[in-house]
Amino acid sequence: MYWPMRLMLVVSIGFAGAIAMWTYDSGRFSGGVVPENTRDQLASYKEQLAKLTAERDQFSTTVNAAESQLNIERSAQKQLAAQVKTLESENTRLKEDLAFFESLLPNATGPAGVAIRRLKIDQVAPNQVRYRLLVMQGGKGDRRFVGNLQLMVTVIQEGKSAMMTFPAAVPAEQEKFKLSFMHYQRVEGVLTLPEGASTKLVQARVLENGQVRAQLSANL
Description:
Number of domains: 2
CATH architecture of the largest domain: Sandwich
Number of helices: 3
């Protein structure tokens, strides 16, 4: 409340000073005699006006600095909120993995074999789908599994159903779908579909030497 009152005082004194100056000039140009106390009062107004103007400029500088600091703090708060959201998402994913590992501990001594233990599909854009899956190998884990992941996506485009296979027949794309692990491997990525296409079903397959060793489907 202090700054607004001071600023109002500046305006009031400035207004009064303007009236005094007008009175002084009117008397001078009309040939009248301006009393000495009017000159003194005018000088006092000018002095106070100059002082309060300086204070106003100082207050304005302080306000601008405070606003800049507030904007910086708001920006930092947004960044922290984004970091918290990212950490919460990562924490949720780690909890999911931990739950799967705990539920699958008995399989460590069971028969050897590869299985897809989790497949999650999320829509991230009108024509983009994010996939996340966990591939595990049972048994003692003394053999490295080397194979490939294949995704079969059922798409609907212009009212017609079609099947798309990922990865495409491109070496760079196929490299992203290679599997090589002793105990488990987590795989995730984004599939880009044709414009106007939508999907409701994704099937993941684990291939070894061209043979299907495991498969799992998930609905969007």
